[in-house]
Fold this sequence. Notes:
Distance between the termini of chain B: 56 Å
Order of helices and strands of chain B: EEHEHEHEH
CATH class of chain B: Alpha Beta
Shape of chain A: rod-shaped
Oligomer: heterodimer
CATH superfamily of chain B: STAS domain
Number of helices of chain B: 4
Strand content of chain B: 15-25%
Amino acid sequence: MANDTMTSVATLMRDSQKEILADWVDQQLKDPARTQAVPESSLRASSNEFLSIFQEAIQKGNLDNMAAPEWEGARKMLSELSASRALQGSTPSETASFIFSLKEPLFALINKQLGAGNIASSEAIVRYSKVLDQLGLYTFESFQKSREAVIRRQQKDMLEMSTPVIKLWEGVVAVPLIGTLDSARTQIVMENLLQAIVDTNSKVAILDITGVPTVDTQTAQHLIKTVSATRLMGADCIVSGIRPQIAQTIVHLGIDIQDITTKALMSDAIREAMERTGWSVIRNTSQES
Amino acid sequence: MVERIPILKIGETLLVTIQVDFHDRVALALQEDLTDKIVTHSSKGVLIDISSLEMVDSFMGRVLGNIAKTSRLLDCHTVLVGMQPAIAITMTELGISLQGISTALTAEDGMELLKALMSKKQKRVSHGRQIARK
């Protein structure tokens, strides 16, 4: 395959960039998979940008290896594009068809230049098809990567958000648990709680499970672990917020929660914690009116 | 010669501060020494400070448990103080809950707890005497 046909395609692309662009954008707008996530103006701008980068890259003649430095610019642009589209909420197929829809206008151009149906044009089409496939896959991969990054960040945010340790009173800390208690979260809760006990020099810790939807044997196991770790540190642990259904489930499952102090309500737990630390709350009746 | 952890006698209590690398032989030596000291000084309480302990394994957990049990037999309370969060997590993961051993956050709290434990027993003794006198 002569490289001059390739460069001639590149030259041709540069000469008729406007027509290809119009054709390509038209293709993308017609695409039934298109959502309204990306406005037409930005679609046109990114298509135009990509065409310039693309024809610059094929002019250099390396059509086999998309990882080569000649394609650096194209790769960078595509990964930025798919990252921004992932955040905007485009569908995966919409993002991938950004590249795939370039095939039709490009092949029409090749056919026009080299003549439809002859060996040279079909060879050129096969080659360019390969190039575009690779770029399309690259786009898709970057799209996936940025989506995964978003998910990971959200997971991390959720973990941090869902395990606050609150200092309730001098010597009393509390952790309101919200959401399912799995081993990864238990680990984080435990670390945060134990560190808070050391930092605040607390004698009593309250674990409130009002926000835990279900308690099974594993969740109970995690709770017992947390309680025994606080005990080892020299603090007492009270589990509160046990809803009636949860109490029944615990009994039905035959979970032995050993000698953990449990309370139905957070307020009961606070009262108990105050008592244990030697505080008492007295209502001042003279100020009541 | 095995490195030995010093045991300080303060009144009726013994104070042990683990500041060196607490490996197996040191742990066993401590268990032996402590049992001897409890008997010779007829101590009523032991305070073990592990705030500078940064690593623990199942063997050390067992030794600490054994120390508590032996002192219990000799009518002596054991209070473990200053456990690091990481150590506490490791211990629970290893399944060592140190049942029967009292814990406190700081040496000060531990001393108070030990005094409370010891005075409770003395009260019970004096109460018993009163009944006997009647």
